[in-house]
Amino acid sequence: MGILQLGFLIDFISGPVSVGFTSAAAIIIATTQVKDILGLSFPGGKFLQVWTGMYEHIGETRLWDTVLGVSCIIVLLLLRKVKDIKIGSEDDDKEGSMEKRSRLKAAVSQTLWFLSTTRNIFVVLVCAALAYYFDTKNQQPFVLTGEVKAGLPQLAPPPFSATVGNHTYTFSEMASTLGSAIFVVPLLSILENIALAKVFFGGQV
């Protein structure tokens, strides 16, 4: 979308609609993650199903999964602010001269910036190392993803038919069932992505 300069499409959407897209995406993402933070496992992935399931299974909350999840959130929020820490005296900041800072201060400043920028990767690596450590001790205080199949999936064209129950639907039948939604849904997805990109990049998309 960035290469094709499709950001102008968002100009045709009103502000409230753009904010609605962004807020809805944030709520949906948060909803899909809450049950994992609590270590809960139950069927259903839709919005109401997830919240209903959490209410029904809240007594099954796993302590260490919750501690790890909340700790990661706190660490991410703290690391986000690390890059704003000022290194050096106020006089140096006012003059804005990097030459007047010592090499040590410059190195610390760059390290804090790097740590803040790569905070997501840092937290993932630390948690992975922690899970590996407990696994070597034959302990599993956290719910792990499980075995991941190695390699890439085999290259193949997308399926043009689907079997539901005892009936196989052809591509033309699926297209006729979807109707205009076959064009509207992808367009809305593109506009939602552009709206989110504008939020993160301060409207410079």
Key attributes of the depicted protein:
two-stranded antiparallel ribbon, 205 residues, mainly alpha
List the helices and strands and how they pair.
Elements: H1 15-37, H2 47-57, H3 63-82, H4 90-95, H5 103-117, H6 119-136, E1 161-164, E2 167-170, H7 171-178, H8 181-200
Antiparallel strand pairs: 1-2
Helix pairs in contact: 1-2, 1-8, 3-5, 3-6
Provide an overview of this structure:
- The protein is mainly alpha-helical and 205 residues long.
- The protein has one domain (6-151).
- It has eight helices and two strands.
- The chain has helices spanning 15-37, 47-57, 63-82, 90-95, 103-117, 119-136, 171-178, 181-200; strands at 161-164, 167-170.
- Strands 1-2 form a two-stranded antiparallel sheet.
- The chain is extended and about 65 Å long.
- Mean pLDDT is 78; it is low at 93-98.
